[in-house]
């Protein structure tokens, strides 16, 4: 019996991207590292690492074409998916399926987490973020320029902003 073919079977080349390596962007108050691209994984997925302090959060939004998976390494997130808010801590995984409204907020300073997205989704962070020249964490509020770039790429990434973050102050 032949094994099924999966994305990544053809064209992927092994690599190691060390801690603090990868293209870096300041994005919506988080320091983002691109750890693996869809191109590098031959279309299997994209992986980013984010580091942020308490208060960094996303608006309520929906991805119409991609899923999102969060893996918390350090700190704590509140992840809101389809009307339910979950507390996600070290070692925990949360999943936001495509088509489901979601948002997340960083609850502890020095939080670190990975986000797995469909291949190509990692390019969103370069399209909207600002190049990060060092490892310091940015202010947890998105800049006006980031918000403008976000509006410019909503259609490209099949992303819809539904409203403000759904978290209590």
TrEMBL record:
Residues 55-110 form the Cupin type-2 domain. Pfam families: Cupin_2. It comes from the Archaea. InterPro entries: Cupin_2, QDO-like, RmlC-like_jellyroll, RmlC_Cupin_sf. Signal peptide: none annotated. PANTHER family: PUTATIVE (AFU_ORTHOLOGUE AFUA_8G07350)-RELATED. This is Cupin domain-containing protein.
């Amino acid at each position: 019996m032949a094994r099924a073919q999966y994305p990544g079977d053809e064209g992927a080349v092994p690599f190691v991207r060390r801690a603090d390596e990868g293209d870096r962007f300041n994005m919506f108050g988080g320091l983002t590292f691109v750890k693996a691209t869809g191109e590098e994984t031959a279309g299997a997925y994209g992986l980013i690492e984010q580091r942020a302090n308490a208060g960094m959060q996303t608006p309520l939004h929906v991805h119409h074409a991609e899923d999102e998976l969060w893996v918390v390494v350090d700190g704590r997130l509140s992840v809101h998916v389809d009307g339910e808010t979950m507390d996600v801590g070290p070692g925990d995984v949360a999943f936001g399926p495509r088509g489901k409204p979601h948002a997340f907020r960083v609850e502890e300073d020095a939080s670190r987490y990975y986000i797995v997205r469909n291949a190509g989704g990692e390019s969103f962070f370069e399209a909207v973020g600002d190049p990060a020249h060092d490892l310091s964490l940015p202010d947890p509020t998105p800049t006006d320029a980031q918000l403008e770039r976000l509006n410019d790429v909503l259609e490209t990434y099949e992303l819809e902003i539904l409203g403000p973050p759904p978290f209590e102050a």
